[in-house]
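Bump. Still looking for 4Fe-4S ferredoxin-type domain-containing protein structure tokens.
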Amino acid sequence: MGENSKSVVIIGAGIAGIQAALDLGDMGIKVHLIEKQPCIGGRMAQLDKTFPTLDCSICILAPKLSECYRHDNITLHTLSEIEKIGGSVGNFSVDVLKHARYVKEGVCTNCGDCGTICPVRGITNFFDADLVTQAAAQIAFPAAVPAAYRIDPSKCLYLNYEICGLCYQNCGADAIDFTQKDSILSLDNVGAIIVATGLDLAEDIHTLNIYGYQKYDNVISAMELERLICASGPQAGHLSRLSDGKHPKKIAYLQCIDSRSQKGQMYCSSVCCMYTTKEAMIAYEHDNELESYVFYIDMRAGGKGFQKFLQRGAEEYNIKYLKSKISHIDVDKDDNPIITYEDYETSE
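Sorry for the wait, here they are.
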């Protein structure tokens, strides 16, 4: 970058974007960190533990969140999206659409009074994989950075009908600001742009419905299981079935769903073999009689220590790996999923 182009725009404030911002900031480079969600941290903030060391995820992430927020060379732009990019390498111009929070970020004390008094309920919480609901005045999780609530403009009674206003009337910090508007921030002399937009879950509901997702209560996504077994999750780490609250004795993990497929994504996600084993290990720690079955096409564990991690899962955590292809899933009268599959090793 030239001397007059010392700023860097990073799109995405997950762990990759945060670490890149910290590294650049420590080098004296000004960074604009753009995140579409109300808080930074991305998917890693939702995880209980990380592979292959099974370290606490938020224990690793939380110090980086705070450091990023306080860093003199890093400017956070939450609730923001890229509107337009112009210019050329070494001298970009970037327009950022900043959505209104309707809460003064530096004034809010994160006390939660607005969320408690808000009468609008039943809004799904993306951070908990939509397993629980929240109010129109909301925060993703208690340790979120920035530590400020936001008001959902699509649900708020005051913003839509100019009625209610209970949060404004009862905010002791005077942090509610209904006059805020969406705005465009123009950034010039941007020397480089880092795209750290991370990952998202499979969205082909038709493909997922073949396997009973959103049809049977006890067929859930990996992220939903992650939040269920996480100590900070909606069940405080207590593993139970969504259908009846009972503790499961067997869990089946289906690999390569909507990936390595001409009808879905043709590539391998490169992480599902490992995070599946990690989740099975954590589940086993809740119940050492639990049986875990991993249905996979090919086992792809190419990172350092990854193969030993899989072996450890099989030897110490009662995980059984089945090279197979799933045909279909039904349920019995007790909502127990019944899996029909082809075993590649026995051809049955």
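The domain at 7-99+182-195 is CATH 3.50.50.60 (FAD/NAD(P)-binding domain).

Edit: fixed formatting.
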